Amino acid sequence: MYGIPTDGATVKALDKxxxxxxxxxxxxxxxxxxxxxxxxxxxxxxxxRYLDFSSQLVxxxxxxxxxxxxxxxxxxxxxxxxxxxSFANDARxxxxxxxxxxxxxxLNRVFFTNGGAEATENALRMARLHTGRFKVFAAHRSYHGxxxxxxxxxxxxxxxxxxxxxxxxVRYFGPYLYRSAFYASTPExxxxxxxxxxxxxxxxEGPKTVAAIILExxxxxxxxxxxxxxxxxGVRALCDEFGIVMIAxxxxxxxxxxxxxxxxxxxxxxxxxxTFAKGVNSGYVPLGGxxxxxxxxxxxxxxxxxxxxxYSGHPLGxxxxxxxxxxxxxxxxxxxxxxxxxxxxxxxxxxxAENHPSVGEVRGLGAFWAVELxxxxxxxxxxxxxxxxxxxAAPMGEFAAACKQRGLWPMIAGNRTHVVPPCTxxxxxxxxxxxxxxxxxxxxxxxxxx
Length: 450
Ligand SMILES: Cc1ncc(COP(=O)(O)O)c(C=O)c1O
What we know:
The chain has helices at residues 8-18, 55-58, 67-79, 90-102, 116-131, 148-153, 187-205, 231-242, 294-299, 315-331, 333-355, 394-405, 427-445; strands at 34-38, 41-44, 49-52, 107-113, 135-139, 169-172, 210-216, 245-249, 273-276, 288-293, 359-365, 368-373, 408-409, 411-413, 416-419. By secondary structure, it is α/β, with parallel strands linked by helices. The chain has a 7-stranded mixed β-sheet with strand order 4-10-9-8-7-5-6, with helices on both faces. A 4-stranded mixed β-sheet has the order 1-2-3-13. A hairpin with a 2-residue loop joins strand 1 and strand 2 (41-44). It starts with 7 loop residues before the first helix and ends in a 5-residue tail after the last helix. Bound molecules: pyridoxal-5'-phosphate. Pyridoxal-5'-phosphate binds next to helix 5.
């Protein structure tokens, strides 16, 4: 390799000098240099191995360095590294065909992007032009990306610094029974009341002004919130009634994460647009996109679609998507993730809740789970306050440190640890990780006051 540093200290020093990191005060962070990775593990320069219960940013669904996926990228690189979007390209055509094949209903076309934010950004643009309306309904508990439109749709605190953003975003509460905005006490009540709330908002905003409702099919970073029965079908019905485009943001929940190709498959609901990224090729090469139904595709048959990207449908990203989808099929990875959810994570995390008073709730499906930590089970006071930083966030920091010390890389989000390893993780690896969580949760229990 030409001039690539081979020791952790140099990597770290250069990072400190020259790299500007996401979502960070640059002087206050201490990025761990990573030397290598394989399967469900990555290794630092001191040779310490971590079992990855985060899949990086919930994107390495296929695990690290899958040999067939690496080979497919190498082959494509040798054949054709790049070609701009207005040409037709075999890797792009085949990736689009495969994605249309696994997508539900008449979602038959793919607009490729470099990642998730550009996907939600373009889905919004399509919905607005298709309907001739401009408002978009987006959930408080959501993340849709960090570009202008995507961050404006995002509900959570990462949006605040980018305000005032795009006009026309209307915020709604989605279902979350454990902390119900609707004083509901059953999943059925939560579903009904969340839908009634959405209907009221549509009525008061003016149905003819609403272009789209965007939702994360299973809310990811903001809690792994699995929708209660009837909710998605109810949103679909509202969209049909009022001519609103339903956008399912499956950037995190799609491509096997929920034990289905797309999370919507779980509830047999067909949105008008699906946004994807991450698991489409596990981020081996950046790729995302929007899957478009026939009606919206029809809008742009004679009319120009006013959007594009130099790297839309990049051959390396698309070749990686083709290989990844084929590997998922050959190795039954979607089915594996589904079985992990019902047979491994479900029971193991329920046991953690039995062992530790600080576990308020465990929830999830497939390889997509949250352990929500509280100071008091009766009041459900979160272990750390909403959007805590610095000393307020210390209990979660201590919990994370306890995991890392024992060789487990957790995904911390607010007062929760999300359990989101690669979808290829084995039952033995899960057991290894759960054993670490079991020990580390003693740290959280120390703060329990209930
Ligand atoms: C649901 C969802 N949508 C969009 C995004 C943005 O994706 P990207 O970071 O690739 O722009 C994310 C990223 O975490 C996400 O989880």
